[in-house]
Amino acid sequence: MAVSAQVVGVVAFYMVAALVMVFVNKVVLNSTPNLPTLFMFFQSIMTVLLLNFTSLFTSHVKIPSFDKTTARKLAPLILVDASGFIFNALCLRDVEAAFYQIARGLVLPLTITVVALSSMVRPSMAVVGCAAVVTLGFFLGISFSEGLPAQAVPAPLALFYGFLSSLAIALHAVLVKSSLPHVGGSSTMLSYWSNLGSAVLLGLLALLKGEIFEFWGMINSGSWDWSTFLWGNLVTGVFGFLISIAGILSVKVTSPTTHMFSSAARTGLQVFLGVKIFGDVFTTQRAISVATILTGTLLYTYVKTQENSTAPAPQPSKDVEAQSPLIQMQEKSSA
Q1: Helices (H), the chain
Q2: CA 132 to CA 292: how far, in whole Å?
Q3: Residue 127 burial (CB count, 10 A)
Q4: Which of 101, 201, 306, 328 is 20 to 30 Å from 20 by CA-CA measure?
Q5: Alpha-carbon distances of 25 from 217, 251, 331, rounded to whole Å
Q6: 260-308 pLDDT tens trace
Q7: Euclidean distance between CA atoms 140 and 110, whole angstroms
Q8: How confident is the chain (335 residues) per 10-residue block, as mean pLDDT?
């Protein structure tokens, strides 16, 4: 019973943190649609500061030492993660919260494709079939539906942002495996490097785009209510950090199947809250799309569980938390 309560607690914590990230990010992006890069910059900085603070009280959070060799080896992962942050923000800004999961519906097919290309191992027909189901659900969701108000119809550019954010997660799935050995297999150290590197890149991009100067002008205008932006940064920064911790706990006390079912439940709640909070339009066609995507994802989890049960047992990881970076990237990139 104690184990069951622990699992329920971790899953509930994980779901709440992820939902808070999506909806608070949506509120901030709605209020300041001109500052998405700067918003992501502040989130990355907040995660770095909280990791430093937490490391003072526990040995489980390790702060890496800095050297050019490690930075160079982690550069591809940092670039992909920074791209994932910004493309997710742009996608969430430009689509309704209830449509967000559909816009990023190609995460699983793209991940399967990228992993297969990088490992040169052909996926089984069952896995390909699951990817096909998810892809069908995606195209069903983005296909034209008559009678929708103009604001509920996603622009092609918004869908392209969703595709790029999905691709970033797929690339992350491959790069994280080659990156973990450079930080001793610790996902907290990898998270530190990733967020710090992302903050540098996003800060430079915000400067090049003029967002920093625009932000400063808005502050000095006297007419801008900056409270939403301020509190949104604080809340998403804290919850983004908590998702990293929740990702580690989730791997330790739950199974991939449990995680996928909790993700399915969270998607349902996200759609419901999107309709209730923002008045998003959610048609029967979109409901079928989400259901199809979730069905394909759950089938994939079942297929991989069956395939892994018949495969030789892998060597145990030296660091259990090293198994969680992909989960963390998927949830934090909901920003």
Answers
A1: 2-31, 36-55, 68-94, 100-103, 107-119, 125-142, 156-179, 187-209, 211-221, 227-253, 256-278, 284-310, 325-332
A2: 10
A3: 18
A4: 201
A5: 22, 25, 13
A6: 566 667 777 888 888 888 888 888 888 899 899 988 888 888 888 787 7
A7: 17
A8: 62 79 91 94 91 86 85 93 93 91 89 89 91 93 77 88 92 84 83 91 96 93 87 89 65 55 73 84 87 88 79 46 43 49
Cα 165 to the center of its chain, rounded Å: 9
Q: Which residues of 70-88 are buried (b: 16+ CB within 10 A; e: fewer)?
A: beebbeebbbbbbbbbbbb
Q: What pLDDT does 318 receive? A: 39
How far apart, in whole angstroms, are the C-alpha atoms of residue 199 and residue 42? 8
pTM of the model: 0.86
Distance CA 84, CA 158 (A): 14
Cα(248)–Cα(188) distance, integer angstroms: 9
Distance, CA of 3 to CA of 1 (rounded, Å): 5
Distance CA 145, CA 248 (A): 40
Question: Residue 6's CB: how many other CB atoms inside 10 A?
Answer: 14
